[in-house]
Amino acid sequence: MSRKIPLFINGEFMQGSSDQTLPVTSPATQEVLAEVTFATSREVDFAVASAKEAFETWREVPISDRARLMLRYQALLKEHHDELGEILAKDTGKTFEDAKGDVWRGIEVVEQAANIASAMMGETVENVAGGIDSYSYIQPLGVCVGITPFNFPAMLPLWMFPMAIACGNTFVLKPSEQVPMTPVRLVELFMEAGAPKGILNMVHGGAEQVDQLLNHPDTRSVSFVGSSHVGEHVYKTATAAGKRVQCMMGAKNHMVIMPDADKNAVLNALVGASVGAAGQRCMAISVAVFVGEAAQWIPELAERVAKARPGAWDDGGAAYGPLISKAAHARVLDLIAKGKSEANCLLDGSDCTVEGMPDGNWVGPTMFSGVTPEMTIYKEEIFGPVLCCMELETLDEALAVINANPMGNGTSIFTASGGAARKYQHEVAVGQVGINIPIPVPLPFFSFTGWRGSFRGDLHPYGKQAVRFYTETKTVTARWRYDESEAGKQPNMSINLR
Length: 498
Fold this sequence. Notes:
This protein is an alpha/beta fold. The chain is built from 16 helices and 23 strands. The model has no long low-confidence stretch (mean pLDDT 95).
């Protein structure tokens, strides 16, 4: 019998009572690894109620104690780093090295959460008017919700609940039902770190459970990462219900290659950034824009991309793993077929097989040249190991194409010219820019700052913006008199301080 994935509510793991279940399958073999039971409406209410009750005591815990919880948690995550990587690799199909990277990027955010005291300092101005001082406090919101996707089952939950809880909130996590095993282990280690019951809860489910959390009268904020279609629904529904919302959504990330760039650095960067993790990253480079004579490098790039073969998580020679599901596999193959009718197909990974794993969701490295913005493979986020190459004459043309794209998650430029790099970073309408860096995901003392159609909300995850997102500011204006009497003074009929 396969493992049954539990809910986690009020400090205890429990089996869900719903009849609605979903098998958790290996993307490489279709073996059933576990079974996840969706939470009932009553169980979702119980999770929120537990978080709400715990908030009344957790918000009063000294900030230094909250920071120490995060210190203990990050130590446990580091101690179990490889174990978590293996669970995640089996859960998602990622290679072991890629899975460990997923875990590590989450640990970095927990380390930042351990620095919460300095991040939550308010502001003070003495004597703003006669004998009057003003100062602000930063206080937690209440019950916060996190909804995470399949592709980063360690990093993305760790983007959310450690920062929220360190700020004094409590949390309900709804991880992807496709990859629930990694989040379960994250929760186990959090409790081992000494987390009080109720401050973190976890429920499983789909659209019904998500909508209940979005509309629940006792939830205050929603953090979401996932597809644009679902993200738009989450944003509209949750904001209509009065929640504070941040939605990280779809992407179409471009890498601009100038003729003066280091060719070897460009080609190596493009291989990993395009087909790494089977292209299932919201920051993957899916469009390479070759400017001028740099287009001559495309045939050599195809030779290098062709060597990136997929394989099982424990295959040390594999560059990436399978796609997450049969549905994702079919969608990517359909887009490749459309691409072959639109552009020049330099590499076709449609018929990829991996020895000993005939049922895996394999797609080989795929590459097109001569791509234009009107083509389906350009307009759609493929989310597979597919690289589209465009050939343009000038940097201005590249900027025009990229800025016309509705998405704005990440972009990069490879060049030896400081002037070109300066022009690009200033003029490109994308929130995260790499200069001779292919995937510019910032470290957690900054924030993850996707723009335009890649983001809904106004405060981004982790970094200083996450603290603002998970807190409210209370401003106090105070007068304390020591030796002056109010006797004989007249009422102040204006709003001026005196």
